[in-house]
């Protein structure tokens, strides 16, 4: 079990993390993952909201009570468009800003966080099934302990 020690807190990072590259919208990705992996991902009532960074990330979850696994599909990108016409600071009327949940993995479009999936064979089977989804470019396992912003995945 991996733990991060911070002042007064121990965050548990004992889960499997999968990165997905795809141009699919989040609801399409959840739909195809449900079909391929036999899950029931549904949109969580609240997004992952980072008020200090003025961004939020879509979140889909499924708690599998049969296998005792918890699945989360999280978008890695938040795109915001600001209207600059009133400020006269810029020749352009709109400014687009992209924020990332995990900035060191900007190329990843989605993360799947799975609590309770520790068998290497099951992880590889899951990756193979995800890679079969049309419009998924690739998916792969990510070592959480190598991520500087791994605490953003604690929710």
Which descriptors would you attach to this protein?
6-stranded antiparallel β-sheet, 15% helix, 2 helices, alpha+beta, 12 strands, 155 residues, two-stranded antiparallel sheet
| Helical stretch tally | 2
Mean pLDDT: 85
Please report which band the strand proportion falls in: under 5%, 5-15%, 15-25%, 25-35%, 35-45% or over 45%.
Answer: 35-45%
Assembly annotation: single chain
Order of helices and strands: EEEHEEEEEEEEHE
- By DSSP, the count of extended strands is 12
Q: Which runs of at least 5 residues are low in confidence (pLDDT < 50)?
A: 1-10
Biggest sheet: strands side by side, in what order? 4-7-8-11-3-12
What is the radius of gyration?
A: 17 Å
Largest sheet, strands/sense/barrel: 6 strands, antiparallel
Which structural class do the helices and strands define?
Answer: alpha+beta
Number of domains: 1
What is the topological layout?
Elements: E1 3-6, E2 9-12, E3 16-22, H1 26-37, E4 42-43, E5 48-50, E6 55-57, E7 59-64, E8 69-75, E9 77-83, E10 94-100, E11 110-115, H2 120-131, E12 136-142
Antiparallel strand pairs: 1-2, 3-11, 3-12, 4-7, 5-6, 7-8, 8-11, 9-10
Write structural notes for this entry.
With 155 residues, the protein is an alpha+beta fold. The protein contains 2 helices and 12 strands; from the N terminus they run E-E-E-H-E-E-E-E-E-E-E-E-H-E. A 6-stranded antiparallel β-sheet has the order 4-7-8-11-3-12, with helices on one face. It starts with a strand and ends in a 13-residue tail after the last strand. The relative contact order is 0.26. The N terminus is likely disordered.
